[in-house]
Amino acid sequence: MIENFKVLGYDSEFNGIIKKGSNTFTLPRVIKGEEIQADITLKPKLSARLTKVISPASSRIKPLCEYYLQCGGCALQHIKYEEQLKMKQELVSNLFKEAFDKEYEVLPTIGMKDPFYYRNKNQVVFKNVKGKLTCGMYQSGTHNVIGTTNCYIQDKIVDKIVTTIKDLMQKQRLSAYDEDRKTGLIRHVLVKTSKATKEVMVVLVVGSEVFPGRSNFVKALVARCKEITTIIQNTNTRVTNAVLGDKETVLYGKGYITDILLGLKFKISSKSFYQINPEQTEKLYSKAIELANLTKADNLLDAYCGVGTIGLIASSHVSKVTGVELVKDAVNDAIMNAKANNINNVRFICDDATRFMVNSARQKQSFDVVIMDPPRKGSDKPFLDALLKLLPLKVVYISCNPHTQVDDLKVLLEKYEIKSIQPVDMFPHTHHVENIVLLTLKNKK
Ligand code: SAH
C-alpha cells in the first residue's frame, strides 16, 4: 500500500528510516526530514519502496552517474557532499552516545576537495551475458553485471584499459570465464594505480591455465595503453567470491607498482592490502600521527600494519617501531618498504596480532604508543585484554567500521579515556565511515 511518510533518520548504512505504527521500515535514496511516498508491504517481510519524494531536502542533488539506481555502489550520490560529511560525523556521534551514554565531541569529518575518481584499486568483472561479452561492476549484493566501466569513483584510466581488453578479447576470440560451465578465460581485471608515480598495474584474473595468444594479447594491450607499467596473470579456477587466486605470473614489467605517501615510497603488489584513496590516506595518517603526539623517545607499535605504511611514516618521530601483520606477503612488502626508504628503526613481524599482544604482555614488553588499524570486524577480546596489561600511554584506534570500534572501546575504557574522535571520509558517496579515536591512560595527563 502506498502512503506518505517522513524520513526519521538513518540506519547504519544510511538507508532512511520510516515508521508505521510499531513497524519500522528502511529504504535507500531518501534524506532525513524529507516527506516521501513509499509502497510498503508487511508480508512475507517488512519492506518499503520509494515511489515519490514529496518535499526534497535542500541537500538533495541529481546523481551524476546514470547507473546510480542500478549499481548501489555510490548510494549517497543524491546528497550534496558537505551533507554526506555531516551525516558521517553525526553517525559516529550517535554511536558513541548510545554506547557510552555520554555526549562526546566528534570533530567534523575530514573530506576531499574533489570527491570523484579517487580509487587506486579498481575491479571490473567480465561475464558473458546472453551470449555477449560484457564487462562492468556487480550490482550491489548480486552477481548481475552492470555493463559500464565509466565509474565516477574509479580511476579514469580503467575505462580505457578495460575497453581495450574487451576489444582485444573479441579480436582474439577469447571469452569471459563461465563459472557454471568452467569454460572461457577472463574473470576479472584488476587495475591498481599510483597517482603519485603514475604507474599502472593490470591484473588479468583468468579461470583457466590456458591463455591462447597470450603474448600477442599483452603486446597489443601495452601498445594501445602506454600508461600500463606492469601486467600480471592471476589464475583463479575456484568457485569463490574472492577475486584473486593464488597463482601469479608476471607477463610484463616488474610485477608491482610504487606509490608515494607523505614522501615515502611504498611497493604495491596485487594482493597486499593498501588504502584505496591516496589523498585521504595522507590525511588519515597525518591526523593519526598528530593525535598520537609522538616523541623521539617513544617505542611505537603499529598493529595490523599491512605493508607498514603507518609505522614507516611515523618512524622519524619516534625511537623505534614494531609492526605486526598476519599476511606474509604484506610483511615482506613492509620489510622492502623500510629498505627502500632507508629506515632502520623499524621491525616487522608476521603474526596474528592477538597472539603477538598476548605474548608481549606475558613477556612484560612495553610500548609507549599503540596505533591499531584492524579489519572491519574489529579486534578481539584477548587482544584488548593484553593491551590493558601492556598499558601504553596512548592508543590511536583507526577503524573502517565505527560499529565494531565502539564495541572494542567499551573494553578499553576500563583504563583509558577518549580524548579525540575524528572521522575521515575515505569513501565518498558510499556509506562507509573511517574513524580515528585517541585514547589516553586514565589519571595520566
Ligand atoms: N594499517 C594498514 C592496514 C590496515 S587493514 C594500512 O593502513 O594500510 C587491516 C590489516 O590487518 C590488513 O593488512 C590485514 O591483513 C591485517 N589483519 C587482519 N587480521 C589480522 C590479524 N588477526 N593479525 C594481524 N593482522 C591482521
SSE topology sketch:
Elements: E1 2-6, E2 9-10, E3 16-20, E4 23-27, E5 35-41, E6 47-55, H1 68-71, H2 81-100, E7 121-129, E8 132-138, E9 145-146, H3 157-171, E10 186-193, E11 200-206, H4 214-224, E12 230-235, E13 247-252, E14 257-261, E15 264-268, H5 278-292, E16 299-303, H6 309-314, E17 320-325, H7 328-340, E18 346-350, H8 353-362, E19 369-372, H9 381-390, E20 394-399, H10 402-412, E21 416-424, E22 434-441
Parallel strand pairs: 11-12, 16-17, 16-19, 17-18, 19-20
Antiparallel strand pairs: 1-5, 2-3, 3-4, 5-6, 7-8, 7-10, 8-9, 10-11, 12-13, 14-15, 20-22, 21-22
Beta-strand level of the residues, as a percent range? 25-35%
- Which ions and ligands are bound to the chains? S-adenosyl-L-homocysteine
Structural class: alpha+beta
Total count of helical runs of at least 4 residues: 10
| Amino-to-carboxy terminus distance | 59 Å
User: How many individual β-strands?
Assistant: 22
Q: What is the arithmetic mean of pLDDT?
A: 95
**Radius of gyration, CA atoms, in whole angstroms:** 24 Å
Order of strands in the sheet with most strands = 9-8-7-10-11-12-13
Q: What's this entry about, in short?
A:
The protein is of the alpha+beta class and 445 residues long. The protein has helices at residues 68-71, 81-100, 157-171, 214-224, 278-292, 309-314, 328-340, 353-362, 381-390, 402-412, and strands at residues 2-6, 9-10, 16-20, 23-27, 35-41, 47-55, 121-129, 132-138, 145-146, 186-193, 200-206, 230-235, 247-252, 257-261, 264-268, 299-303, 320-325, 346-350, 369-372, 394-399, 416-424, 434-441.
